[in-house]
Design goal:
The complex is a heterotrimer. In chain A, 30% of the residues lie in helices and 21% in strands. Chain A contains ten helices and eleven strands. Chain A has helices at residues 2-12, 52-69, 103-115, 131-137, 140-146, 176-180, 201-204, 220-231, 269-278, 288-295; strands spanning 40-44, 82-87, 120-123, 150-151, 159-163, 171-175, 183-193, 197-199, 235-244, 257-266, 309-312. In chain A, strands 1, 2, 3, 4, 7, 8, 9, 10 and 11 form a nine-stranded mixed β-sheet that branches. Chain A has a two-stranded antiparallel ribbon with strand order 5-6. In chain A, β2, α3 (103-115) and β3 (120-123) form a beta-alpha-beta unit. By secondary structure, chain B is α+β, with helices and mostly antiparallel strands. Chain B has nine helices and six strands; from the N terminus they run ααααββααβααββαβ. By secondary structure, chain C is mainly α. Chain C is built from 15 helices and four strands. Chain C has helices at 12-33, 49-52, 55-65, 75-85, 88-93, 95-105, 111-118, 126-139, 150-180, 190-203, 215-227, 235-240, 242-250, 270-273, 297-301; strands spanning 183-184, 187-188, 256-260, 307-311. In chain C, the strands form two sheets. Chain C has a two-stranded antiparallel sheet with strand order 1-2. A two-stranded antiparallel ribbon of chain C has the order 3-4. The chains are: A alpha/beta, B alpha+beta, C mainly alpha. At the B-C interface, α1, α2, α3, α4 and α5 of B face α3, α8 and α9 of C.
């Protein structure tokens, strides 16, 4: 069962070209150049538990494994840092509906930050639906607070117009505390999107923008790359434990939710998104903002060239 | 002890001077007739007929049919306070004078949250009858329509579909057709032009609320198609696989 | 022989009444603030409580819609209690009444002026006529009594006007402090104001500023109604409130009565100065149970303790009926 599962996973994620023999033993990592620090890691769960506790456990272990494969959180968070963890808390939905980031992924990231010596971890988002409801029903408020993070609703006063000098966004309102935090960690969920085909890491950063965000869609690709280039998160994590394959980014039909049992983490947000696109069956070149991000020097679309570490948990 | 009690009870048959309210029966009758007249006058408004409807009179999901609603709503404002997205407002003359300060949805200010049923929980007189979230998700409170003269992909050859992005129904009630159009510079561009799926749309209004076209949104909700008023319909059911 | 004049001390009934009024007002406001989404798709607390004990709404909705909501049978308790004991509801429980009580107590003016407006006025009969009109409309299915039901009026005004305005004002104040960042040297006002603001946001302020169309009109009407207390004491309660009218009708012959020692009373009319309901306590035979809130101010104010509460069970003879004066 495990082998079939793994093989299907490899096929659909276009890693088929990589050596599969090295995956024979559990927990084995794939090394291309042992000396360089890894830029991209992919953690995959061998099974697909159905019980809520099992899924929570899976999310926690996958997240830890993905970060550990990159060299541990201390590579990204230093002692005494103020860290802003940016999950997707955009929608008034439950975790099973895969519209918001898995709460256990978020809580694990918060734990890892504190373990690395962070002074304060802030968790928030500019929700599209009612913030009160979205924070509560997504489970992220409770999970993050339990992990010791400061969870709060955004304060209108702290959106400040910032000069971004982007291609379409010369200046835009961004949340001051997020920009001024020592570290920014992007924790997005992988979903279908009607306009840009897939919402991955870079799209998630829209949640730190204020003002009339509903205008971005007139040139969504450029807007997203502008924001991503300005904010440059230290670490981008993609939650693909559950993915939304249709009717995104809000979803609602449980039949559209598929289990991919994967977490992706990396420093190159373009490469992370390029790989994330394959989880929904797209090619990286199909996603407009991935192509533009690569073209503008934000990262590389060719995630294989980064020698991603693949871990089976 | 019985003497005072019997005196007390006799006081209801023939009240002592201080227990009298001092209002002549005539005056009371006149007041009653005034009230009845008011009630009668409310019935002559076209809105009281079963054919005329105000497109802006969108009531919260679970609201009873209009005449029943007006006979139960006590204009208390509980629903207005509880609505998480500030969608419910005190009506002006939207429902006629009789409907003053009854709850009406204003999608330009707020929208009806898909997974919420709070207004039906707090209505003290059940003018908004209690619904489970699943029941509420099947109630149509109206129907959205596109104003193609204002919608960015239709009128300005610009890409958008924020409406489709936010549509909460499990199968989205907004779908789009990819069209090749000319932009102002004469170049051919492909835009996604949105349309409403009339069977799926429940009139929640998030599309109108999030539409970037300010002032008057390019997609708006009107009350037609509301489940509570069987006469306020426009679709032939089952005609297109609905 | 006249009793010795007492030194002025507020009667314990008055203190008790104020305590009970405060409890119910705070309870009402607490329920108001908790009429909001609270974690899993529910409100916190019995937010409909005051509407469920309100017999006016129960009665009128029943007449207008021919259906009765079971939860509203609690209002029978109010009706029966008023029938037996009088309009204690208005004086002790009604939170809107407490608000009017408070603003009435802010009135200045010399005792003579207050004497002139403290007594019963025949205009108080208007609210009975309004109640009748509302019932008439309800007979034809129109439940418009909600416009003037005290809880509807109070809640609606709070929800659509008062709370949004207070919220906006508070946010504006703290935003100004945050933006202007005043201070002396390294000491900044924001080090005090920001923690306060955080607490306010968490417990009292709205997550998102609410806006309501028509809120200005509702707010203005509310302010006018409150301001009328400076014209006549407890204006709403005496002249407008249809619930007060209903309770007045039901409670016009209660078991509990006011007792005045007429053999000693020298007609100083001090008891009249702070009478809330306009019930004519200064003339025992003219005391009007349908207007009395049992606020106990007359009991407390009488310098010689001639005024007290009694029940009809201990009433021995019919008091000598003095010539009834009609005051203003």
């Amino acid at each position: 069962m495990t082998d079939i599962h793994r093989r299907t996973f490899l096929k659909t994620t276009a890693l088929a070209g990589l050596k599969t023999a090295a995956l024979a033993s559990a927990g084995a990592a794939l090394h291309a150049t042992p000396s360089s620090a890894p830029a991209l890691s992919i953690a995959h769960y061998k099974s697909s538990p159905t019980a809520p506790d099992g899924i929570a456990e899976e999310a926690r272990r996958l997240t830890r494994s993905a970060i550990d494969s990159l060299g541990g959180m201390s590579r990204f968070v230093s002692r005494g840092n103020v860290v802003w963890v940016k999950p997707n808390i955009g929608w008034d939905r439950m975790p099973e509906q895969a519209a918001t980031t898995n709460p256990d992924v978020v809580s694990t990231i918060v734990h890892l930050c504190y373990e690395a010596g962070a002074k304060r971890v802030l968790v928030s988002d500019n929700s599209c639906n009612s913030a009160q409801r979205s924070f509560a029903r997504s489970g992220i408020q409770e999970a993050a607070e339990k992990a010791g993070a400061q969870v709060f609703f955004l304060d209108e006063r702290k959106f400040r117009r910032m000069a971004m000098n982007g291609r379409v966004l010369r200046e835009w309102e961004l949340y001051q505390d997020a920009v001024e935090a020592d570290r920014l960690i992007n924790v997005a969920i992988v979903k279908h999107h009607g306009l840009c085909k897939a919402t991955l890491g870079m799209k998630n950063l829209m949640g730190l923008a204020g003002g009339a965000r509903n205008r971005f869609h007139q040139d969504l690709d450029s807007s997203l790359v502008d924001i991503a280039a300005f904010l440059k998160p230290r670490l981008t994590v993609l939650d693909a434990v559950r993915v939304l394959t249709a009717n995104g980014p809000v979803g609602g039909n449980l039949a559209d939710v598929k289990r991919k049992d994967t977490i992706v983490a990396g420093v190159d947000q373009v490469a992370v998104d390029a790989f994330g696109a394959t989880l929904l069956g797209h090619k990286p070149e199909d996603i407009g903002y991935v192509v533009q991000g690569a073209a503008r020097g934000l990262g590389t679309m060719n995630y294989q060239s980064l020698s991603p570490r693949l871990t089976e948990v | 002890m019985w003497k005072p009690l019997s005196e007390w009870m006799a006081g209801f048959a023939r009240p002592p001077k201080e227990a009298r309210l001092g209002i002549e029966r005539r005056t009371v009758l006149a007041a009653g007739i005034a009230g009845l007249s008011g009630g009668l006058l409310f019935r002559i408004q076209p809105l009281a007929s079963k054919r005329t409807f105000n497109p802006a009179l969108i009531r919260p999901p679970g609201a009873l049919a209009e005449s029943d609603f007006l006979s139960k709503c006590i204009r208390c404002g509980e629903c207005m306070k509880v609505c998480p997205d500030n969608a419910i407002h005190p009506a002006g003359l939207d429902g006629g004078i009789e409907g003053a300060w009854t709850p009406v949805m204003r999608m330009s200010v707020g929208y009806c949250e898909y997974e919420c049923n709070l207004c039906s929980q707090v209505c003290p007189t059940h003018a908004i009858r209690e619904l489970t979230v699943e029941e509420k998700q099947k109630v149509h409170i109206g129907l959205a329509y596109f104003d193609k003269n204002r919608c960015l992909p239709w009128a300005y050859s610009r890409s958008c579909i924020v409406c489709e992005e936010h549509c909460p129904t499990p199968k989205k009630a907004i779908w789009f057709e990819e069209a090749e159009v000319l932009n102002a510079s004469g170049e051919k561009v492909t835009v996604k032009q949105p349309r409403v799926d009339a069977d799926l749309c429940i009139g929640c209004g998030i599309c109108e609320n999030k539409c970037p076209v300010r002032g008057q949104a390019a997609v708006r909700v009107t009350s037609v198609g509301e489940t509570r008023n069987p006469e306020n319909q426009m679709l032939l059911p089952d005609a297109y696989g609905g | 022989m006249a009793r010795k004049r007492k030194t002025y001390k507020t009667h314990w009934l008055v203190w008790l009444r104020r305590a009970v009024q405060s409890v119910f007002l705070v309870f009402f406001l607490w329920l108001f603030l908790n009429t909001t989404f609270f974690p899993i798709n529910t409100t916190r607390g019995p937010v409909k409580f005051f509407f469920q004990i309100d017999p006016l709404v129960a009665l009128n909705s029943w007449i207008a819609s021919h259906t009765f909501v079971r939860a509203m049978s609690l209002s029978l308790v109010t009706l029966v209690a008023t029938f037996l004991f009088g309009r204690w509801f208005c004086g002790w429980i009604c939170p809107f009444g407490t608000v009017h009580n408070f603003f009435t107590s802010l009135r200045g003016g010399r005792t003579k002026q207050r004497l002139e407006v403290g007594g019963y006025s025949p205009w108080q009969r208007i609210r009975y006529l309004m109640l009748t009109a509302f019932v008439g409309a309800a007979l034809l299915g129109s439940n418009v009594v909600g416009w003037l039901d005290p809880f509807s009026f109070f809640f609606r005004s709070l929800a659509t006007a008062v709370y949004p305005a207070l919220n906006a004002g508070t946010v504006a104040l703290f935003t100004w402090i945050y933006d202007a960042n005043p201070g002396i040297g390294p000491a900044r006002l924001t080090s005090i104001s920001e923690p306060i603001y955080a607490q306010l946001r968490q417990h009292l302020l709205a997550v998102a500023q609410p806006y309501y169309t028509g809120g200005v009109l509702i707010g203005v009407v509310f302010v006018v109604v409150i301001a009328l207390n400076f014209f006549r004491a407890r204006f709403w309660c005496r002249y407008i409130c249809p619930l007060g009218a209903l309770l007045g009708v039901v409670g016009k012959n209660p078991l509990v009565r006011l007792h005045v020692d007429t053999s000693q009373c020298n007609n100083c009319r001090v008891c009249l100065v702070n009478c809330q309901g306009g019930a004519n306590p200064q003339k025992a035979a003219a005391w009007m149970p349908s207007e009395c809130f049992f606020c106990a101010n007359c009991i407390s104010d009488c310098p010689w303790n001639y005024v007290s509460l009694t029940t009809i069970l201990s009433r021995n003879k019919v008091e000598e009926k003095a010539h009834v004066e009609t005051t203003v």
